[in-house]
Amino acid sequence: YIISGVLLVGGIIICIFKGVTLDTSFVGGAMLKYSYTGEADIAKSEQAATDVLNRPASIQVTTDLITHEKKMVVTLAGNEGLSPEDQAKLYDELTKINEGVNIELSESYIVEPYIGKQALVNSAKAIILASVFIVVYVAIRFSTISGISAGIMALFALIHDNAIVLFVFALFGIPLNDAFVAVTLTIIGYSINDTIVIYDRIRENQKNEQLSLTELLNSSVTQTIGRSINTSVATVMCILLVFVFSYIYGIQSIVVFSLPMLFGLISGCYSTICIAGTLWVSWRKFITKRKEVKQGKIA
C-alpha cells in the first residue's frame, strides 16, 4: 500500500506540474507531413510554426525504414482548420529556418472537433465497458470466494495500472491519443489474466479450512508467483525490443505505444501479486469484523 501510495501521489504531482494534453485525434486540429532531405533544426521549426500560426504546434521526425526518407510531422492544436494561405506561410517559414534543406509537403489533414470528441467519448466507453464486464465475469466465475468483492478489488488494481500508464504519458510529454486507449485496453486484459490465475488458486486452496485469509493469500501467491514473473519478463522483453528498434529507427507512433506499455506491464505484474489479492483480503477482513461487531462478538 505504501509503495502504491507513493507512486500514485508522485504521478498526480507530475500531472499537476507537467500537465496532461489531448492529441488532435481527440480534440481536433491539423496535421501536416513534410518530407525533407538534410538536417533540419526541429526546435527552431517548432517555435517558428507556433509563432507564424499563433497556435500551439509540435513537431516529430520519422524515418521510413525502406526508403530512409525523413518526414517532419507538424501537429497543430486548436479547433480551427488551416487555410491554404496559412499552409503557404508555414512552408515559407520552415524553408527559411532550415536553409539548404529540401522540404516538400507530402500530406495534410484536419480533424474536426466534433469527430475528436466522439473518438474520446467512444474510447472512454470502451474502457468503462471492459472494466464492467471484467467485474461481472469475476463475480460469476469466483462466487465461492465472494466474487463481487474479488471483481471490484481486481478493478481497483486495474485502475492502479492504468493510472501508472497515464502518469507515463504525462512524464514523457506524450499527448493522450489512440495509443493510450490501445495500451489501456491491453493492460486491462493482460493484468486481469494474471489476477484470475491467483484467484483460481485461492479458490482451490480455500478447501483447506485451517488457513486464515492472510495465509490463504500468501500460499496462493507463492504458488503462482513464478508463473506471473516469468510471463511478465517474457512479455516485457518483447515490448522492450519493440521500443528499442522503434526508437532507433524513429517510428514515433510505435514509440508512444511501446514505452507506456513497458511501464504498464511491469505495473500489471506488481499489482497482480501485491495489490489485487491484498485488497481482497483487507476487504474480507473488514466485512467479517463488521458482522462480528453487529452480532456483539466484538465490543
Task: Walk me through the structure.
This protein has 299 residues and is α+β, with helices and mostly antiparallel strands. It is built from 9 helices and 4 strands. The protein has helices at 2-18, 24-27, 42-53, 84-97, 113-141, 147-171, 178-205, 213-248, 252-294, and strands at residues 29-37, 57-63, 70-77, 102-111. Strands 2-3-1-4 form a 4-stranded antiparallel sheet. The longest helix is centred in the C-terminal third of the chain and has 43 residues, at 252-294. The chain is elongated, with a radius of gyration of 24 Å. The two termini are 28 Å apart.
Helices and strands in order, then pairings?
Layout: H1 2-18, H2 24-27, E1 29-37, H3 42-53, E2 57-63, E3 70-77, H4 84-97, E4 102-111, H5 113-141, H6 147-171, H7 178-205, H8 213-248, H9 252-294
Helix pairs in contact: 1-6, 3-4, 5-6, 5-7, 6-7, 6-9, 7-8, 7-9, 8-9
